[in-house]
Recover the amino acids of this structure.
């Protein structure tokens, strides 16, 4: 039970107040609903169902049975154990975890830290809203971060799906290498020399993917980003003002589709003309799309709506959002991402007896690039993907493969063992 109404008082003085038994565990996806404080998240999006609102035709039919209006029950897709695992793995560090079922779009985990206790909203909403750590902010849908090298799978999608390269194409992985007139280095300054695109992803070689970005060009890269859902709000059952679009953004926050440094955006960063920013939900959708053979399903928090007698009023069925790439491209990317976990930068996401496909990312953030934004996206099992996940942490000193990958592993393990 994630939310219920409890009566207070007697007779005409009786009122019903929302209570949240799990306190902060599902605060961000479930939200809150209080007469004086408003509503958030599912509580707001599904308010009509929760209060028993129906269209005129349905009201006539149900009115014949019972003229007393009752609210309907909303059942979510969220997994309690996996949500607990995600929050425990974040260890109080600011960040977010999203897990999606690739074939259906069901959102199984939506964890954002810091969280808050929605039961405290009536008395402490002022303090919570003014807290500089922004506990009420849902970092999975309302905060966009530089995705670092996890974005290389989007670049690889565009390059392979258009036929610009194959996984075996050899590209110069030298470091430094001039990109857009400015030298670009690989992590640690490692000079790889001529290597295949697959090896470039396995070792997360910046100079290889910057060249791929220049090869496919801005317009093609933007086209594939849009197929994945970038440049628009997610198709998720949350209020629109509680979600933001991922994409290339200028310093003023505006989205741009042209004029940016395509080489640096292609590796998950950017330049003065625009930097790539992505929400954790968006990057989970990227992983889920590849896992689902190139088909992006609309993400869904709600599973079904029930009448008070248990009958199903509405069932939220899987809905295709976009055909992002050819199935052969998705298969190639899966094999490449499998290599990342087997022998590349994502070995700490490996599961015993289960093959995992993944990609690490470590973006540089801060005024002087003094912090990192570690990421990891993954899905498993490779031969029959059942779950996809995205993990990121805010402003740390760690790397995606060492900080975020272990969290992804724990969440996948929890979901796949259930």
């Amino acid at each position: 039970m994630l939310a219920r109404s409890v009566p207070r008082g007697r007779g005409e003085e009786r009122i019903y107040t929302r209570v949240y038994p799990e306190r902060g565990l599902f605060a961000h996806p479930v939200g809150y609903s209080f007469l004086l404080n408003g509503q958030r998240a599912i509580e707001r999006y599904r308010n009509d169902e929760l209060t028993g609102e129906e269209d005129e035709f349905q009201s006539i039919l149900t009115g014949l049975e019972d003229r007393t209006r009752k609210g309907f029950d909303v059942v979510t897709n969220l997994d309690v154990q996996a949500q607990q695992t995600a929050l425990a793995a974040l260890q109080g560090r600011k960040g977010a975890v999203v897990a999606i079922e690739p074939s259906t779009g069901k959102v199984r985990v939506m964890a954002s830290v810091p969280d808050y206790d929605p039961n405290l909203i009536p008395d402490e909403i002022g303090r919570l809203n003014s807290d500089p750590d922004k506990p009420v902010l849902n970092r999975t849908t309302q905060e966009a971060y530089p995705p670092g090298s996890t974005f290389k799978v989007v670049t690889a999608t565009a390059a392979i799906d258009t036929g610009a390269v194959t996984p075996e194409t050899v590209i110069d992985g030298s470091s430094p290498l001039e990109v857009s007139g400015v030298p670009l280095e690989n992590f640690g300054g490692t000079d790889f020399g001529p290597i295949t695109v697959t090896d470039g992803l396995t070792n997360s070689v910046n100079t290889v993917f910057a060249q791929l970005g220049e090869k496919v060009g801005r317009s093609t890269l933007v086209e594939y980003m849009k197929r994945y859902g970038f440049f628009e709000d997610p198709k998720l059952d949350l209020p629109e003002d509680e979600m933001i679009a991922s994409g290339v953004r200028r310093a003023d926050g505006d989205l741009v589709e042209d004029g940016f440094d395509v080489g640096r955006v292609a590796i998950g960063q950017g330049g003065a003309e625009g930097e790539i920013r992505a929400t954790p939900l968006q990057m989970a959708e990227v992983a889920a799309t590849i896992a689902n053979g190139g088909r992006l399903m609309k993400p869904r928090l709600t599973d079904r709506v029930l009448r008070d007698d248990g009958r199903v009023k509405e069932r939220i069925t899987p809905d295709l959002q976009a055909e992002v790439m050819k199935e052969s491209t998705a298969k190639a990317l899966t094999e490449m991402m499998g290599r990342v976990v087997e022998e590349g930068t994502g070995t700490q996401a490996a599961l015993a007896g289960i093959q995992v496909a993944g990609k690490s990312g470590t973006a540089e953030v801060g005024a002087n690039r003094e912090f990192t934004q570690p990421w990891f996206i993954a899905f498993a099992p490779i031969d029959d993907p059942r779950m996809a996940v995205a993990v990121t942490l805010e402003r740390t000193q760690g790397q995606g493969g060492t900080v975020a990958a272990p969290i992804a592993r724990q969440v996948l393990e929890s979901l796949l063992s259930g």
